[in-house]
């Protein structure tokens, strides 16, 4: 979509605001055009001694009234127009946010957070300016230009008007040349600002790592370099914008010279009065605004076009996970993966290579294997964050893709390896999965996740703020808050992705006991526990060992020990490690 159709469509939808602004603008233009005529008539009246003191006072009062009317109308129409234009920013931001929140991990793997943030702020600001400031200056400038030219041609002297207009085509040529450079410079400026934003976002998110590695100086140098590049790019755009001013100045100087030359000649030959020449010169002065407005509008339009060119691909980016399902209730029946193959884009080998597993409702699957074996990827397939290139996944007798994403998400609770806490209280963080949950339900879930006692020790208990603006929880505490969140959701599929890795074995045992109680109370709850620590999966109904994306062993704990493969050797190793730790 072009900027013109975007802004045009917006103006049509908000035509009342734009139309009332235009009416007020016409009022401003009429009043402004009237002033020089009045001044010219006053001068001629004074020169001819036709004006009495009383007449002069009345005329001066009328001029003052015109000035006040112009002021009031200008303020009112700006308020009206800006009041409408800011809504375009809100609309675009809402669209961008909605699109981004529906994108999956594959999209975010290719995009930089700081860049997306810059799009939502700087670039949309530029587009908003094109619908507000540019429309304002464009309307105002065009109307003033038409009226002033009309009066100059028809109301003062057409010969003067024609000669004064001679330099204007050259100015148009200069404007065209400058605006092309502004577009390039603005595109570069927006890109550089994004890069700077990205650096700030990344280094602030990783500030502890930056400090721990002593990288402050290097990070500051990188920031300084990026800030310098952003400033240079912005300066370059402003340099081009500044080129409008001399073009306007030169055009006006040439027009004034030509006018005074011809005007002087006409006055000398009694073909023009001094008052008319004064009016004409004042009108010429009134052309300064439309000319500056033209430059300003062109540069705002180029800025808006550059912003839209960066924003549009994000709004149009295909969803990395399509939501084309129609079923909104998960059917009864097993969760079945059949010959699932999945390869990340750009990866050289398959992350899942022919995986087949069937889980009856209520079963617990333990997913183990060396690092990089494909455990998290398998969970991502179940979450529909990754779509297998081959094979099928069905749940309750229907392919996963036939469910609506919100239905799937409501039925699934996922605790990722790195759990994220929002800037809110602990209670609010737990209740995210079920916003209407009572305090008793939140505390019950926290008890199941073995975090209740820790929470009571925090300064404000469950109301303690966490996340960026609150206290920092330990990795284990964060994991347990995330587990509490997932248990509160009461969904039918629980996915734990190495979610107990940061808790000690005693806490792990307590959580697993609570999970066993939960499964006894809710026999339909299916759980998949991916873990490096085998103690987390010993009681699972089925344990699957993944290696290089393939299932290399599967069975119950005892069965796998008897098999004496990777699982058995890993079990012995981990048992030995635990006994060494205990001694
Ligand atoms: N986003 C990605 N893009 C490309 N390759 C990826 C991506 N995520 C994972 N991989 C690769 O896919 C393979 C499986 O990774 P996965 O995270 O599923 O393993 P894992 O068994 O969960 O590992 P860990 O136990 O270390 O968490 C690995 O080789 C990994 O490097």
Automatic annotation (TrEMBL):
Residues 335-573 form the ABC transporter domain. InterPro entries: AAA+_ATPase, ABC1_TM_dom, ABC1_TM_sf, ABC_transporter-like_ATP-bd, ABC_transporter-like_CS, P-loop_NTPase, Type_1_exporter. Residues 21-303 form the ABC transmembrane type-1 domain. The chain crosses the membrane at residues 17-36, 56-73, 134-152, 158-178, 247-268, 280-301. Keywords: ATP-binding, Cell membrane, Membrane, Nucleotide-binding, Transmembrane, Transmembrane helix. CDD domains: ABC_6TM_TmrB_like (cd18541). Gene3D superfamilies: ABC transporter type 1, transmembrane domain, P-loop containing nucleotide triphosphate hydrolases. The keyword NADP does not apply. It comes from the Bacteria. Pfam families: ABC_membrane, ABC_tran. This is ABC transporter ATP-binding protein. It comes from Massilia niabensis.
